[in-house]
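Lab meeting minutes (informal)
Scribe: AK
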Amino acid sequence: MTEIILLTVDSLRADHLTEGLFPRTWDHFQSDFALFENCISNGTTTQLSFPYIHTGQPMAKRGGIQSNIPTLADVYPGFSWALTNSPQLRADIGYSRGFDKFESSVTEASKQKSDHTVSKLKRWGNNYRFIRSLYYNIVLKLYARVSEPELLNSNTLLADSVTDKLISALESEEGFFWAHYMDPHSPFNHKKIPDRDFHTEHTNTEIKSMNNRFINQGATSSDINFLHQYYEESIKFLDRNLVKLFDFLQSEERWDDTMIVILSDHGECFDDEGQYWHGSDLLPVDELVQVPLLVKYAENKHTNSYSHPVQSADLLATVAEELCLDITIPDGTYPFTDDQARLIVSKSANGVRVTTESGYGIKQNDGEITIHGELSERSRRVLKNESPHGAEDQDLNDQFDNNKVEEQLEYLGYK
């Protein structure tokens, strides 16, 4: 049975998959991996995109994975292990389903810190239906005050620790392994690159302020220059640790027989089309939905570059084909190497995007549609009829039931 390693990387843009940022792993990518040059994420945030990665289908109404559909771990016939390393990829919203061992680095301390904010929002929540237009601003300003980003976030692991844990798991078992890397995710600063000694003239307070302005859509050009520098340095740090994993697999003679998938959940905006960060209220522009996808197939079955559009949702179909599984594949999804024409839908809370081989269109919440390239009549109908995620009104009590307010904050992107 083929061993599978899924390496997901948060916030990594497709145009940052370069030799300059991945110097240690680049030769491996060139010789042993298939590169999918036009991979589109189905969502602009972690919460929106990951259900597609694991099931090929959208998230459940209240967040996470739908309870009645199979996940990658469900269909894998052997041992499975996961390190999610993100507060949005938790067991209570379905991400542990099917895994024999499931680990998250989210601490109780971080949960207690956010619970104070949650309790405030619960008390104020009855005004939601009357002041919906103010809700985003209230959440943004309140949550920024109580959850100012730390220079070194103790609630998520850096690439060196993630790789060490993954190698330790691989030493004990064979099967399906999923590890999530958070390094390119904000906040951006020199403390997230522990194997290099960077000098900066900025104080910690100034760096925190830059990151807060960035996520609040108010970064200056000097902020962007500083933050983007450390975004790239975080990618290089990731590269230096990925090569340790590759070296381990080769030393254990497991490289040739293992399938490795490297995929980002979404991109990042650095004043691209006037947008910053990756909040769910942003439009699904290229910089947010074009993501890197590299696949090392067992026995180097495919090592070419592919230019046809693929999507995050195609992963389940790809694994099913690799393992010869007799399972139902979600409509409109295909193995990555299949050049079947796709109609790819990507959503945020502020817009819908439909991508095809000949072009794409974006519909904003106000109904305005912008077309780039050419879209067929069918694609235009889908774009017209699809709604941005969460656009439909819901009863407020639904949103506060079962302590789901924190998920709503994460969904809004202010986490």
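Next up, CB showed the second protein from the same session:
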Amino acid sequence: MAAGALDAWLTPTVMKRGRPAIALSVLCRPAEALALTTLIFELTPTLGVRRRYTERTALEREWLTVAVAGQPIQVKLGVLAGRGRWPQRVAELLPQVPFNWVEFNVGQMGVFVIDRADLVAHADAIRAAGRR
């Protein structure tokens, strides 16, 4: 990450002839691709690196601070132009479902928090909202 990667992750996989392996994925801007490729060659035994170029569309973000167990936590909300905040939009689609939205200021991680019993009880409504 210090070399310019936006994110990196390891994925267990199986290679040909059933050999176990780990796939290293690195997300970076094009300007850092060569330096990060060189670093991968220097730090791993790999003989090759595959690159894919992608585009990203992101929501505008709005930060606010909420208290979780008495501790202040920064929460990031996605704002969809003309439709309001993403968690609020879900709340509008599913007003009967008791959930909390928490997106942490760590990468782009966010989660809907819902009790398992509520998830089971409202599964049909959640599926229907996903098709809207």
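CB comment: The longest strand covers residues 71-80.
No objections, moving on.
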